[in-house]
Every structure is written in structure tokens, then in C-alpha cells.
Design a protein that fits this description.
2 copies of one chain form a homodimer. With 426 residues, chain A is of the alpha+beta class. Chain A is built from 10 helices and 19 strands. The first copy, chain A, has helices at 37-54, 64-71, 95-101, 116-124, 140-149, 159-167, 171-194, 201-214, 301-320, 327-340; strands spanning 2-5, 8-11, 58-61, 76-82, 88-93, 106-109, 130-133, 154-157, 233-237, 274-283, 286-296, 359-361, 368-371, 384-387, 390-393, 397-400, 403-407, 412-414, 423-425. In chain A, strands 6-5-4-3-7-8 form a 6-stranded mixed sheet, with helices on both faces. In chain A, strands 13-12-14-17-18 form a 5-stranded antiparallel sheet. A 4-stranded mixed sheet of chain A has the order 9-10-11-19.
């Protein structure tokens, strides 16, 4: 596929060729993929249809993940999307980089946010009276700046609309999620060569994360919900997997201190421990979520049985999932299956640490739709989610499986392709 | 020092002893330091004094870094601080962990946020009419939930007060920042054994980050400003250091893709490249920021001269800094010194990538006060900031030095103790 990208023609079907004889350009990694013009045009049109349907005259997009989605570039900027007409990216920092990255034609340098209304009026005629903002993520102080800039305007939340729009992925986006999944799977294959008795969880995590970095893991894992934070997922061993936290996750770990209160610790990995290899991979902004289990020695029968139950629950959910099925139906099916296994009390956490979902959408953020909980949202073709039936057995540890799945026309298609059996190491 | 911590006496002067024969407790890392009761009491009293001075009856604290600061624990919770009286932590998830971590006596389990007003009234008498919230970080949708919960209340922003309070560190906090600094310095000492020609930036970063993890780097780097994101700092080589971004930093790197647009790339490290080792270390929630330079072979004279200028600018700022001096005075001194060096155009970035500060406070967040910019804020004893005179020379790379400093009674005291000379590797 060849699309016109600004004033250059770029072949986007594969990474740009490396020309090692030439210094890389200073602003864009040579192997980076740029978001195709057709993608951005379709996404902006989707947002505009929603604005028109709600009687909103425009939206102003400011949050990083949403900026990337609708413009293909993350700058300190305001993306002004009128309900009808061309979107404009008003850039405070860095217009030069925006021009290299976005297929949008309308890039306007912005000296100060104070200039925004004047520039909008200049480009779009009258100032909008009904404006959509991402009120689910926009801090109040920032919102009040918008109120001052556009004193005649009424603002409405479009965060929810954007989240629903972003839940359905294009084929191009699914390719990116597959690239993230490939990192998770490839690093997982390296675990038997890394894991050994005597390493601390921290040492093990560092070595695993280094492999992910080598493969292009981008590090920053974006989450939309206020106060939710994630660092590479949860690489937890033995009883560490039983530590729950503020996070909306079935397992969290102790972390190194109460300040972070999740993730790995200085606990040494010992014979008899197992590893919950829960890795969140990010490539070109897109996330895949993936969990496999490794055992150093013999796994207690109770954990092994719980793992087998997790696989059965996964299979049951996968068999039932297809477009039109509600999240609630899948969640209730899984909860009932866990009860049938006699493991209701430890399913998706234990006690107050138990969470009320079995999966979550992934994309540019880790906490996307669909959330497989008591929700009436129906699965739709193109949705991508992580399904993670897991158990937390106090005193023993956490165990379970997690795959990222694409909703196809007839069911689910596996994105994180890797064997599911528990692997013995050492 | 021994303080009563809930119902246990804990020696907080050193990490808790490891008892390797015993399984670690599942909820708190055995070597973790808990925030002493005296710290929390002093911080809450400081907030309360500010509330009283402004005529606010209470504050409700919800953001992770602020929760940790005022309670010693990060839970999904509301910390209710009346202007007079005892603070109460209303915990949705996870009260059990909160009780282990916080020295606050008032821990109340909260089934739903809807129960908050009733529980506050029960514990504190009448509902407050004037309430402080962290409006600088609280999303509008969350804020509107508070408006519904407390329909009689007027809300005011206390984010700015909290940021100012947190700018001045206790001796206990400075110890934590020193522990973070120790990670940065120790990893820096390992660079000559890691860095070699042919590694990609990504491979090099992974190996460096693995060492930091081994030493207890907590991974998550909190930033307060909307949309600002950071992953370990910037480990950039050669011309990569010239890539600016949306970040409010003098250098950013290309990153792997426009989706993240900062940090390392797949660029191979070559003879003649230099490494900007800019590592943000986090230990027990506290941050130290640190930059040193390594050269693989001969560094171009222009970069070397710029580095020497950076050291002179650093020395001049350090000589002038003491309590009572404004941030503006230090910033202008540095800008004038860069101009005297003939390097004004490349100081703190180049062109549109240039930023207008030379340093920033560090603590539980990377972007704390004082910001060394055109601000009238005066330095005060106990403030801790990173001073980072850096230059970006197009076509050559970025170079500079960064140390974390403590404002003492008479001047500045170095936190990141390490030699400043450029180190030749290979």
C-alpha cells in the first residue's frame, strides 16, 4: 500500500528500509511506522459522525492516546475537530515533528493557548457554541482554561464516545497489536534461559524487561482511568502473586515499597516457586496482554488444578464469544464455571482483592472497552481484548492464563499465539 | 528510632530484617520502609494549617502521590482531612493493606463512594461546606461525582498548596531521595562494562534498566502535569539527543515510534557516538535525576566545549543558590552565562525544542517545585531539585550535566555524588 503522506509517498506495508550509511533523521526513528492517512481520515470521520449525532459543533482533543489515535502524532497540541470540515492540529510543541508524523494537512503553530480561539475563528468561521472535550481525563484546572478561552461555549463529555469508537480496531491496528503480542511471546520463549533459583524477582524482571526493550517494547503503558498505573505487567513468583492492591487487577504483588505497592519485590526465587509471567507489551503505541506460567520444580496440586480450571474457563468463554454476545453473558458464564470448579472464592482474586471482571479491551490504553464484567456492551467485530481467568490461592500464589483475542465475524481469533501448558524450568 | 505503628512497634531507622526461613508476608515487601508516624502527622498538620488559613473546612485527597505523602499508603481511597481533627482514610480497595502501611489510626472500609458523605458525617459531625480538592489533577468526571456526593459544598483547588508543601522535604524524605540517587550513581558506574559499539540504544537501555531494577528501581515515574510521561529518563546516543518532543524536557529522543515519541530507538551505537546517561531513579516513591556523559572514542570539540560550559554554568548556579534566592535569579544567571559562552541558541534545547527552565524539583513526582524558570518562588531550606544545564547541537547531539541538590541553610548540598568528567569507553 502506498499513500501520500504530506508531501512524501511512503510505503506503509512494511517498516521503512534502514540505510545504515546515512545518519538517521533526528526526529523520527527510521523503522517507525506512521499512521496511514486513510486510518486517520476514517477515525476523524467517525468522531465527526458522533459529534453531529449529538448536535456538537466541534471537539477539542488533548490527551496523548487520543491525539495519537486521531492525528498520528503526540504533540503538546489541541486537535480541533469540527463536526463538518477539516481537522486542525494547533501545536505548541513541536510543530516540526507533527508535520513529519501526521497525515493531517492542517498544522498550525500555536504560541500560546490564548491564541487558540482567534485561530479557530480564522480557520473555521464562528466559534463553536457546543464543544466536546475528554472530560473523563481532563483535569478540572485545564477544563477551566477552556471555559475562559471559549466563554460562550457549552462543553460536553466526548470521552465515552471516543472510548467506544476506539474499542473497534481496524486491520491496521490489529497488525500493531500483533506486533506487541510478538514481543510478549518471544520474551516468554526466552524465560527458560533466564529463570533460575536464587534470582530475586527484581533481577528476573530486569532481565525479562531488557529482552522486551531489545525487541522494541516502548516502556510507557498508558491507562485511561485516574490513578491507575502499570509497569510491564506483573512478573510475580510464588506467594507474591497473592498480594492485591489499589489496582483493578486480580494480582498486583507487593512492589518494593508501599509507595508503588505493586510489581516485583526483593523476594528470592526458590525451588518450588512458580512464575506468573504476566507481560504487557507495547509496540507502536499498541498493547497486548499475555500471561503464562513457569514452574521451578513441582507445582503443588492445588495450583495445578486451578490452572487447569482456568484453561477450561478460557475455553468456555472463547466458545461462547462472538459479535452480539454481551460482556455480562461471558462474565457470568466464567463466574458460574469457576463456581462449578469449586473455586469461586479464589476466582479473579481473593477476599477484598477480588475484582469483578475477567477481561479488558487493549489498544492504545490498557484499560479499554470491552470490559468483560456485568456490562450490557455487546462484542463487535474488530474489538480486541485480553481474557484472563486467574485464581489467587492464599499461601500458595496466583495462577491463570491470559491471551489477547480479536473478535472476528464468527467468534474469537487468537492474537497471542503460544503454547498454554505450564513449563517446568530447572 | 522506634515508633508505634498501628499496634506494632517498628524500628524505622533501618530496613526490617529478612528472616529467610519464613515466607515473606504477602502484602508488604519485607525490606520496605514504612512512612513513620511522625512524618505523616507533620504533613497532615501542614495541610490542615493551610486549610484553616483559607477558611476551608476539609480536604479530600485522592491522587496516588498525594495519598502516599499524607497517609503512607496508596489505596483506592479518599483521605478525608478536616481542618481540625483527625484524618480518616476511607478505603475501597484494599483496607487490609492500608492498615499494614499507614500510621493513621482512622481507616474505614468503603463499599461505595455513595457511602462517603454518610460516613464523613458520622465521624466528623456536619458535612463540610467548603472543601479542598486536587483540581490540578482531578478529571472533570471525577469532580462531578464529588459535586453530587456533597451537593451543599463549594470546592476549591488545594493542588497548588499541596505542591508547595511537598516542595520542602523532611530529613526522612531526603534520605529516600539519596537512596534513589544511589541507584542512579551505582548503575552509572556499571556503564563502562555495558556500553559497547554495535548495541542498539534499545539494547543498551534494557541492560542499564535491568541493573536499576536489580537495585530496587520501582519503575513507575510519577508526573503531575497532564499528559507528561517518563520512562527511566533518556538514555540517548549521538544525534538521537537532538530530537525534541511534546515533553517539557530539553532532550527527548525519537522513541521507537510516533506513538511514544521519546526515549531510545533502534539506532545502533557507533564509534564516535557519545551517550547521554540521563537516568531518573525511583526508590520508595522518591525520585533523583542524574545525567553523566560517556564517549565511545573521541568526542567532537564542539560537544566537549559545550560540556565544559555546562559545568561552568552549573558551578555558577550552585554558587549563587541559597535560601531566599528566587528561581528567576538562578535561571537568568544561567541563561546569561550560556550567552557569554556563545551558546545561547543551543542552551536547554534548540529552536522550537528549547525549554525555559534549567531545573525542576524532584520528590514523589518528577515535576515538582521549585522549577528554575522565570518564577518568583524563593528557594527554601529542604527543597530538592535537579539542575540540568544542557545543550543541543543540531547534527552532533545533546550534552550536559545533571545533579540533584538539596537546599541547605547556607547553599546547596549535592545528593547525586559522582565524578563529573566525561568518561571514555572502549
Amino acid at each position: 500500500m502506498s499513500v501520500t503522506f504530506g508531501d512524501r509517498a511512503t510505503d506503509l506495508s512494511r517498516p521503512m528500509p534502514r540505510t545504515d550509511a546515512v545518519q538517521p533523521p533526528p526526529l523520527v526513528e527510521p523503522r517507525a511506522t506512521l499512521v496511514p492517512a486513510t486510518e486517520v481520515a476514517g477515525r476523524v470521520a467517525g468522531l465527526q459522525a458522533g459529534l453531529s449525532a449529538r448536535g456538537l459543533e466541534a471537539a477539542v482533543i488533548v490527551q496523548n492516546a487520543d491525539l495519537y489515535y486521531f492525528s498520528g502524532t503526540v504533540q503538546r497540541s489541541f486537535l480541533y475537530v469540527p463536526a463538518v470540515g477539516e481537522a486542525t492540529l494547533f501545536v505548541r510543541k513541536l510543530a516540526e515533528r507533527a508535520r513529519l508524523e501526521t497525515p493531517l494537512a492542517g498544522i498550525v503553530e500555536l504560541g500560546s493557548p490564548r491564541d487558540l480561539p482567534g485561530l479557530v475563528a480564522e480557520r473555521c468561521g464562528a466559534l463553536p457554541r457546543r464543544v466536546g472535550l475528554e472530560l473523563d481525563v481532563l483535569p478540572v484546572v485545564e477544563y477551566r482554561r477552556f471555559e475562559k478561552l471559549f466563554p460562550e461555549a457549552v462543553f460536553e463529555d466526548v470521552g465515552d464516545d471516543i472510548v467506544r469508537q476506539r474499542a473497534v480496531k481496524s486491520a491496521w491496528e490489529v497488525e500493531r497489536i500483533r506486533a506487541a503480542a510478538a514481543i510478549a511471546v518471544e520474551v516468554c520463549e526466552l524465560v527458560p534461559g533466564i529463570l533460575r533459583e536464587g534470582l530475586t524477582e527484581a533481577e528476573f524482571a530486569g532481565l525479562v524487561e531488557a529482552e522486551a526493550r531489545r525487541l522494541g517494547h516502548e516502556g510507557i503503558i498508558r491507562m485511561r482511568a485516574f490513578n491507575q498505573e502499570m509497569f510491564y505487567g506483573q512478573l510475580l513468583t510464588g506467594v507474591s502473586g497473592t498480594a492485591a492492591s489499589y489496582l483493578d487487577t486480580p494480582l498486583a504483588g507487593t512492589g518494593f515499597s508501599p509507595a508503588v505497592a505493586q510489581g516485583v519485590s526483593f523476594k528470592p526465587i526458590r525451588r518450588g516457586d512458580h512464575v506468573v509471567f504476566d507481560l504487557v507489551a507495547v509496540r507502536e503505541g499498541y498493547i497486548a496482554d499475555f500471561t503464562r506460567i513457569f514452574a521451578l520444580g513441582e507445582l503443588p496440586g492445588e495450583l495445578r488444578r486451578a490452572y487447569e480450571a482456568a484453561l477450561r474457563i478460557e475455553a468456555a468463554v472463547v466458545a461462547a464469544a462472538r459479535p452480539g454476545v454481551t460482556c455480562r453473558a461471558l462474565y457470568e458464564l466464567a463466574v458460574a464455571a469457576a463456581a462449578d470448579e469449586g473455586l469461586a472464592a479464589s476466582f479473579m482474586g481473593h477476599g477484598a482483592g477480588q475484582v469483578r471482571f475477567i477481561g479488558h479491551g487493549v489498544g492504545l490504553e490498557l484499560d479499554e472497552l470491552p470490559v468483560l464484567t456485568t456490562s450490557d456492551l455487546e462484542l463487535a467485530e474488530g474489538m480486541v481484548f485480553a481474557l484472563e481467568p486467574k485464581f489467587v490461592l492464599p499461601g500458595l500464589g496466583a495462577i491463570g492464563v491470559e491471551n489477547t483475542w480479536l473478535v472476528s465475524a464468527t467468534g474469537l481469533s487468537l492474537v497471542t499465539e503460544a503454547p498454554e501448558h505450564i513449563r517446568q524450568v530447572g
